[in-house]
Amino acid sequence: MLPYSIREGLAGLKRARFSSIASTSAMSIALVLIGMFAIVTYQANSVSDWLRQRVGELELFLADIDEASAMALHARAEITPGVSEASYISKQEAEEIFRMEFGDEAEMFFDQAFLPASIKVRIAPNYANADSLGVLAAEFATWTRVDDVIYNQPLLVKVQQNLNMITVLGLSLGFMVLFASAFLVANTIRLTIYARRLLIRTMKLVGATDGFVRSPFVVEGVAQGIIAGGIAFALLTMIYSGVQNYIPQMTTISTGTGLMLGFGIILFGVGLGWAGSHFAVRRFIKKISLN
Length: 291
Prior knowledge:
Blueprint lengths: L1 H14 L1 H39 L1 E6 L4 H12 L4 E7 L1 H12 L15 E6 L6 H12 L4 E5 L2 H42 L2 H9 L4 H37 L8 H33 L4
């Protein structure tokens, strides 16, 4: 039965070209929408991690210590769990930064050196939340020769709340896209199967079982899903490359991630083709009259 189903399913793509093109086009559009949502979600997660890292910075102000001791504290900060990177800012560098930010008005403060050396710590993405940041700040505050630890907790909390709201909205939009895509594909496949109702009725009249009737259509749906997945992946690659030319700040998708995305789209296309053809044929077979 399997060789027959495969042979007839692939032959069905040629016999009913218009309906096959319509189904494949509908699935391609649906998969492009789903793929675009996946890419936007990936980019949003990258921006979210970057934003939380920037907002979740700690600055450790050091006591008046020698350069060797300061560098030892810097090395210790770099290997602290939860720290992505740490940079040492000497007194001279702090003075230069202050002059750049305040311009000529900064001169009145430099009768004596009042800016301490510091260590600026950037937190890893999975630690960039108010609770983890508070724990790290408390730990750094216990270190000898660290006078003060500064970070903007209220801003981080606000950013986290906004990101959570955007995530909820994004998931809601994703479900809407998924539902619209499934509806589009299901209706298109239902129409193509309805156009071949005489063939189904003839097979039933000669005694074919429901499974025997349904299997070639399922194979055809799976084949259309594979083709649609390939078309959608090619379109998404071109769209992403074109957008990246205009927005070079977009995170580059690695080869491995791109291949996983392509495999996922094709697999999703197979699922859409199988589900659409399977349920549409089964529903139609139940309604068909042999009288």
